Amino acid sequence: MWDYTDKVKEHFLNPRNVGAIADADAVGEVGSLACGDALKLFIKLDDAKERIVEATFQTFGCGSAIASSSALTEMIKGKTLDEALEVTNKEIADFLGGLPEEKMHCSVMGQEALEVAIAKYRGGPVPTHGHGHDHVHGEQEGEVVCKCFGLTDGFLKKVIEQNRLHTAEQVTHFTKAGGACGGCIPKIKEIIAEVFGEKAVVATKKPEKLTNLRKMQLIQEVLENEVRPQLWADGGDLELVDIAGSVVQIAFRKACAGCHSSGHTAKFVEQKLRDMVSSDIVVEEVEG
């Protein structure tokens, strides 16, 4: 299990500023359910339209995503829009006493949503990082590098530079790029080298083929670390019933048991396992 600080746990269990603002001055939406994380940020300005007086959020994601969104809304209240734009994902993580590196993409998502919200409010080009609803009509930041998550080279360069990332693994932790099929890893290494003026070291080794045992281990890890914590947040849970090759059988528990949207939840679980383990996984919901 991830090693979370007490402040992360506090903002996950008791998140601040949850919900929508009906008459919000600015709204920024990033991520998607297919990616496993989605965030919608609402901002209300004072009468002079100078300072943020209220900020709320709605998110679908893990504990780190909820905590990061909660922290962001607390951090930007009272700031001008220009001051809010200076808030970095590192400052969001620091506000929480730090995040596991594998979860830093949650703080990056908060920074993205803020940039999108303010850009839309100001009527300028909306930055597109590749995987958000508001990004469809935005200004594309270069060419798509990670096709699995639709992330562009411009966005990756920005995150690499701001956070001083020197390995492809770090880039995956901060953005998810390369975390699914791994086909863009060589390109990510080239971008890192370009940012820091180094010579790219591109491996030609083929992706490791998963053994049945390793696949089963990864499935269990993803369910425990990525899926179940999200279900717990809504009072639900699931049980792993069986794994037969690429077929994963699960049974929903607690609030998820008999829920009319359990079919959508099963699809989410399937997509998460396909993204993080193997693209051929099929999830079946069974009675247990």
Give descriptors for this structure.
GMP Synthetase, Chain A, domain 3, globular, Arc Repressor Mutant, subunit A, 3 domains, three-stranded mixed sheet, three-stranded antiparallel sheet, alpha/beta, Sufe protein. Chain: A, 10 strands
Brief summary of the model shown:
The protein has 288 residues and is an alpha/beta fold.
Any chance you could write out the topology, listing elements then pairs?
Layout: H1 6-13, E1 26-32, E2 37-45, E3 52-60, H2 63-76, H3 81-85, H4 89-95, H5 104-122, E4 127-128, E5 139-140, E6 144-146, E7 151-152, H6 153-163, H7 168-175, H8 185-196, H9 212-233, E8 236-244, E9 247-254, H10 262-276, E10 282-285
Parallel strand pairs: 4-5, 9-10
Antiparallel strand pairs: 1-2, 2-3, 6-7, 8-9
What this model shows, in words?
The chain is an alpha/beta fold and 288 residues long. The protein has 3 domains: 6-124, Sufe protein. Chain: A (Alpha-Beta Complex); 141-196, BFD-like [2Fe-2S]-binding domain (Arc Repressor Mutant, subunit A, Orthogonal Bundle), CATH 1.10.10.1100; 212-285, 2-Layer Sandwich (GMP Synthetase, Chain A, domain 3). The chain is 42% helix and 19% strand. The chain contains 10 helices and 10 strands. The chain has helices spanning 6-13, 63-76, 81-85, 89-95, 104-122, 153-163, 168-175, 185-196, 212-233, 262-276; strands at residues 26-32, 37-45, 52-60, 127-128, 139-140, 144-146, 151-152, 236-244, 247-254, 282-285. Strands 1-2-3 form a 3-stranded antiparallel β-sheet. α1 (6-13) packs across α2, α5 (104-122) packs across α7 and α6 (153-163) crosses α8 (185-196).
